[in-house]
Amino acid sequence: MLSNFENEILAVAHLLLGGAFVFAGLRNIQNAGFLTQLMTTRGVPQARLMLWLGIVLQIVSGALVISGVWTAAAALCLVLFLIAATPMFHNFWDYQGPERAARINGFVGNVALTGGFLALMGQAL
């Protein structure tokens, strides 16, 4: 029954997955000072430059996923981004209590996003 809506379902998947990263990239612009400081504390060399490269990657790759242009390449970029960013920003092993739970949720969410991007890559290839 749902196979009649395969194209529509895939379009919504593109919109939701890509849109999440366009939104996150735009939100990160507002939090650039805090994020740069956090990345510096975590030992990231050239933290400000790396942050801005990450923001551009999020917005451009997210927009490409939404549009369906170069979907596999854009999804791969976002998978690589998630591999780098997840342990940096969702380091639940360094926390206890409610803060740990929140970071575990973010970690698991990023793992799920990685799965979604891998599915888009498989569909696009």
What does this structure look like?
The protein starts with 5 loop residues before the first helix and ends with a helix. α3 packs antiparallel against α4. The chain is mainly α. The protein is globular, with a radius of gyration of 16 Å. It contains 5 helices and no strands. The model has no long low-confidence stretch (mean pLDDT 95).
Could you give a quick summary of the protein structure above?
The protein is an all-alpha fold and 125 residues long. Helices cover 82% and strands 0% of the residues.
Task: List the topology elements.
Elements: H1 6-30, H2 32-41, H3 47-67, H4 71-89, H5 97-124
Helix pairs in contact: 1-3, 2-3, 3-4, 4-5
Question: Which oligomeric form is depicted?
Answer: single chain
Choose one word for the global shape. globular
Which sheet architecture does the biggest sheet show?
none
Average pLDDT number: 95
Q: State the end-to-end distance.
A: 25 Å
DSSP helical segment count? 5
Q: Low-confidence parts lasting 5 or more residues at pLDDT below 50?
A: none
Percentage of residues in DSSP E strands: under 5%
**How would you classify the helix and strand content by structural class?**
mainly alpha
- How many beta-strand segments? 0
SSE order in H/E notation?
Answer: HHHHH
Rg (C-alpha, Å): 16 Å
Helical residue percent band: over 70%
